[in-house]
Write a structure and sequence with these properties.
Elements: E1 3-6, E2 10-13, E3 17-18, H1 31-43, E4 48-50, H2 59-67, E5 76-81, E6 83-85, E7 91-94, H3 98-112, E8 117-122, H4 131-143, E9 147-153, H5 157-166, E10 169-175, H6 182-185, H7 188-195, E11 198-202, H8 234-254, H9 258-267, E12 273-275, H10 282-290, H11 298-307
Parallel strand pairs: 3-4, 4-5, 5-8, 8-9, 9-10, 10-11, 11-12
Antiparallel strand pairs: 1-2, 6-7
Helix pairs in contact: 1-2, 1-10, 3-4, 4-5, 5-7, 8-11
Length: 326
Amino acid sequence: MRTRTLGQGLVVSAQGLGCMGMSEFYGAGDEAESIATIHRALDLGVTLLDTADMYGPFTNEELVGRAIVGRRHEVVLATKFGNERAPDGTRIGINGRPEYVRSACDASLRRLGVDHIDLYYQHRVDTDTPIEDTVGAMAELVAAGKVGYLGLSEAAPDTVRRAHAVHPITALQTEWSLWTRDPEADGVLETVRELGIGFVAYSPLGRGFLSGAIRTPEDLAPDDFRRHNPRFRGESFRKNLELVGRFEEIAAAKGVATSQLALAWVLARGDDVVPIPGTKRRAYLEQNVAADDIRLSEEELRRIDEVLPVGAAAGDRYGDMTPVHR
């Protein structure tokens, strides 16, 4: 797989692997298959593995840690803090206080079984703690050798600027796909490019909707969080399914899977963009990785833009958008 550079020097694979769904949110997991998927990703040249302390909670970091034993040198390891949860899964809130930053990092290092984290993100912005204080504590982790590079997730342009003034921010992770084109409209993409910050696109397949595999809400497991997501419910689901149907026609004409076309579109947005599609199965991983070889013509990009322009998707991307873009 080709590589791309985030920020001022973090070289990663052109696609990463989102590991969240291996432990929570998208139905039952299979640890053996999940670890096999991570191993296969490394074999295929995928170096960027993305996790967070709140996934599980806590168990996803442990799973990733077990998977990379003996292969740490092949991995650019990214994790996050800030969405604080209790061991039973109860959501405590968003925490960016300096003392919490330090304790969260130490806990992640223990769970991952490593001595440093390559890319450490603030998962969500804590509006009760100045971003300067949070990033200042993160910068101390860099100085201590516990963290290599710093990132933010779902941060607004002004927050990104203030954070970057304290310590260079290497990557901003935000949802970006043909289904969620907010970064193009809200100034986020423009800001990170001005500052030389890389963009890591999570949910580049529209939480699976752009794969074409979801035809009714009943296709989702009973405990799949998407059943409660506004875009997967009622009239919004029907409208979004119509959009995907038109997108599938373009994929068929191109001779590629719908999911591959969606990934190829994100990859075509610039060499500073790295999508991190999540999967817990090797077959889907291999299909995703193959999208790295797809090239889109100007005409194909134009047709895609006509079918799925900015703001096309029906419904909010979260039931509560309060923690997003602050």
